[in-house]
Amino acid sequence: MYSGRTPSRTPGERIFKTTKSCSITSITHLRRELGFGARGEERDIAFKRAVRKQITTFVSSSDSIPAYKFTKWKNTVHQRGLLEVTKDFLDVQGKGSEFWPQSDLSDTTQPLQYWKDSAKIRSLMTKVFWRAAREYKRHKTAFSTPPLLSQSTDTSCQSKNNPADIKQPIPDSTARFGGNSAEDPIDLEIMPPATSTAGPSV
Question: Is 124 exposed, middle or buried (0-12, 13-18, 19+ CB in 10 A)?
Answer without folding.
Answer: buried
